[in-house]
Amino acid sequence: MNRTTLSLIAGVTALAAVTGFAAVSSPDAKATDGAAEAAAHLPVERTSLVCPSPSSSDLAETTYTSFTPVTKGTEKEGGAELQAATEQKQDESKSEDDSEDDKDAKSEKPVLEPEEPGKPVTGETTGGESPALLGTAEGRFAPGWTVQETTTVTAGTGRGMHGVTCTAPDTEFWFPGASTDADRTDYVHLTNPDDSAAVVDIELYGKDGALETTVGEGITVQPHSAEPVLLSTLTDEKQTDVTVHVVVRSGRVGAAVQALDAKLGGDWLSASADPSGSLVLPGIPKDATAVRLVAFTSGDADVDLKVRLASPSGLITPAGHDTLHVKGGMTAAVDLEDITRGEAGSLVLTAADDSVPVVAAVRVLRGKGDNQESAFIPAARPVGTRATSVDNTAKGTTLSVTAPGGTAKIKVTASAGTEGGTETSKTYTIKSGTTQDIEAPAPAGSKGTYALTVEPQSDTPVHASRTLTTTKNGVPFFTVQLLPDDRGMVSVPQSNEDLSILQN
Predict the structure, then answer these.
(1) CA nearest to 176, candidates 466, 377, 350, 463
(2) Pick the residue with more confidence: 140 or 39?
(3) 300-325: per-residue pLDDT in tens?
């Protein structure tokens, strides 16, 4: 079942309650005039995000960057803030009188509190044990609200740049590419933004099927709090490639895997797109020195995945790696080595039987010898109406876009910077079957970091990712984030029937 679809249905229902009407006819029902009413495309009015606890290292330095694109049709009022989960939990445990008395004595301010749409804002934390963050945006700040968490750790296990886009809570997640290997320390971070406890199951699948776990069922995540779960505490089996399946029995959570390697650095592994017979993994860096593909199918049936690389010149089949056989219920992996050969590239995976759904991710290495660093790229959802990335700079940012199914046009807009500058836009054409590393526009006179929004100008689906790079002590730090639809708009069915009386 597509849990994201259920979340969208819930969002539509809530918005319909606000507007006072919704369509209730069956799909084959006919309007009285014989024509179906078009759905209204309206800005969302409220959204929430969760950011996992960034790092336990005392050397960690974390930046949070928030941005809301300017969206037509929004209300004039609204606001957004990002607060520590532990702080919210403490506040809500107080009595009403205590809360009133302590308003002025509150020791912690929100990590982020945006001032206006169209301009990014940043906040910082240093040192280990920083808490997970919970965020809420309303009114004009809600449509497309995007928050990036970027951490640098200069030494120790998992040293490198760890980047993750803070996500909306949901009820199911797939993470191919995790590990219980001796050199890896992988955590599943579970964050509950709601007023009631969430109950979560964590399932692990290795090369021979489901791993025997001891405490992976019925994990309770308290309201307004976070729970990091170390994978090695769930099973005694040591495996290089593991698929993690997070299922929420009650409530909802945000989930992400923090993968820390003793030798190869570390990064966040975000959830793969929903299981499908066709997957796109966009934006493998052109200087990648090693690429490892991990795939999983949850059914009983085996499937052969056709592996192709969308290069700058078109779709090609990598020599010796044209297919990957995935057994039902088992995790499969293959080393694709330096598949990009110095050019931009994205993986396009197609199941021989598209009725067998698959999830997938790649681990990418840059650098050589002791100066290697790792990052992850899971299968991506299409950009959709609009996608947003934040924490970009004129140097050290690569925007990668692929159009595997046909030629597409996109509009890329650079916002004003955190310290000034003027918004600017540019349009690009992405040829069919290619991946292009775009020289994205930068705001004129910009200082600080800025946001990039990608808006398709044609009906052809595109997939995109953003890579941040820097160098520390000779090690090429980097992190890659996907650019799925930013959930700024929602379709609300129109109806000639006013259902406002049903709200009671």
Answers:
(1) 377
(2) 140
(3) 999 999 999 999 999 999 989 999 99
Question: Using CA atoms, how far apart are residues 398 and 501, in angstroms rounded to an integer?
Answer: 51
Contact criterion met (CB below 8 Å) for 324 and 308: no
Burial of 121 (0-12, 13-18, 19+ CB in 10 A): buried
**DSSP H or E run through 6:** helix 3-19
Q: How confident is the model at residue 494 (pLDDT cuts 50, 70, 90)?
A: low
For residue 267 the two structure tokens come to 């990064």
Q: How many CB atoms lie within 10 A of CB 250?
A: 11
CA separation for the pair 288, 388 (Å, rounded):
24
- Strands across the sheet containing 78-84: 46-51, 133-139, 78-84
Q: 178-213: per-residue pLDDT in tens?
A: 999 999 999 999 999 999 999 999 999 999 999 998
Give CA–CA dist 403/438, Å, rounded. 13
DSSP letter for each residue of 33-70 = TSSPPPPEEEE-SEEEEEE----S-TT-EEEEEEE---
The yes-or-no verdict on residue 446 having pLDDT over 80 is no
CB atoms within 10 A of CB 149: 26
SS3 call for 185:
strand
pTM attached to this predicted model: 0.87
What's the token pair of residue 130?
């920083």
**Helix (H/G/I), strand (E/B), else coil: 457:** coil
Burial grade of 1 (CB within 10 A; 0-12, 13-18, 19 or more): exposed
Q: Which residue bears the tokens 């052809």?
A: 460
